[in-house]
Amino acid sequence: MKSQPLTDVELGRLSAVLGRFRDKHSMNLEQLDGFFAALICGPDIVLPSEYLPEIWGDDIVLEDASAEQPMLQEFTSLITRHWNAISDTLHSGDVIMPSLLPDENGICHANDWANGFLRGMELRKKDWASLLRDEKHGGSLVPILALAHENNPDPAMRPYKERISAERREDLIVYAIAGVTKLYRYFNARRSLGEQSPGNATTFLRTMPKIGRNDPCPCGSGKKFKRCCSKTTLH
After folding, report:
1. Contact assessment for residue 184 and residue 40, using Cβ atoms and an 8 Å cutoff
2. DSSP character at residue 206
3. C-alpha distance from residue 182 to each of 14, 96, 166 (Å)
4. Backbone angles phi, psi at 216, to 5 degrees
5. CA neighbours closer than 13 Å in the CB half-sphere of residue 29
6. Is the dihedral of CA 29, 35, 39, 41 positive or negative?
7. Cross-strand pairs, 108
8. What does 157-222 look like in DSSP terms, one character per residue?
9. Which of 59, 142, 157, 207 has the most crowded CB, counting CB atoms within 10 A?
10. Do 227 and 163 form a contact (C-beta atoms < 8 A)?
């Protein structure tokens, strides 16, 4: 049986609890959604003991453990259900629908979601760095990287000189969503392949065209791939 996705009311409660973690490294709901997507479609299992500190920032110090306990119990229940809903969706082959927060004008930029995804990649950065260098499969990350670095403090890391149009942003979000499904399948295939003997190894089916380093970057910036999203590194 699939996990029941959180309702709008429950997402609101989860967002409110996340808002109580005032550390500068804590996440909002949109970042959490991208973070979980990266962990779930990534190379191996990441346990709550490892990812929870990433969500709420530095270690939590409870002033009144008995008073805070119900809040933490609800928080644990809500994020577990949210994790399971994303996991079930990807496992079934369905397309995930990210939880994006609109700005004051009702526009969803998806920058926080993409940056949350990159924070998830950081927890297994060696495996993800290998994928970034993979010309056959690394292109699935391009729209995510483009959204994550749209407002990078370093202008050289931004994929576009001009503001992203509404049409291009919509395309990037759609491609990012599709990319998550491809990345989930990619790492599933890698795990399966690692469990087989060399003589029984299966052949990967390419899920997207090969991107050469001198080809135009698929994010649409007009730059060569090697000068744009392929230069992204994990720190």
Report:
1. yes
2. P
3. 28, 12, 24
4. -60, 140
5. 20
6. positive
7. 102
8. G-S-SSPPPHHHHHHHHHHHHHHHHHHHHHHHHHHHHHTS-GGG---PPP-S----TTSBPTTSSS
9. 142
10. no
Q: What is the pLDDT of residues 155-203, one digit of tens each?
A: 888 988 888 899 999 999 999 999 999 999 988 876 555 443 333 333 3
Distance between CA atoms of residues 149 and 234, nearest Å: 12
Confidence of residue 134 (pLDDT cuts 50, 70, 90): confident
Amino acid at position 187, single letter: F
Q: Give the residue among 74, 41, 36, 63 at the shortest CA–CA distance from 52.
A: 36
Give the amino acid at 56.
W
What's the token pair of residue 66? 């008995």
Q: Which residues pair with 102 in a beta bridge?
A: 108
Calpha distance 235→202 (Å, rounded): 33
Q: Please give the full DSSP string across 15-65, using - where no structure is assigned.
A: HHHHTT--STT---HHHHHHHHHHHHHSSS---HHHHHHHHH-SPP--SSH
Q: What region, left, alpha or beta, does residue 33 occupy, with left being phi > 0 and alpha being psi -120 to 50 degrees?
A: alpha
- Determine whether 52 is exposed, middle or buried from the number of CB atoms within 10 Å of its CB (0-12, 13-18, 19+): middle
Enter the pTM of the model.
0.79
Token pair in block for residue 91: 């496992």
Give tens-digit pLDDT for 27-39.
Answer: 999 999 999 999 9
Say which amino acid occupies 110: A
Q: Report pLDDT for 26.
A: 83
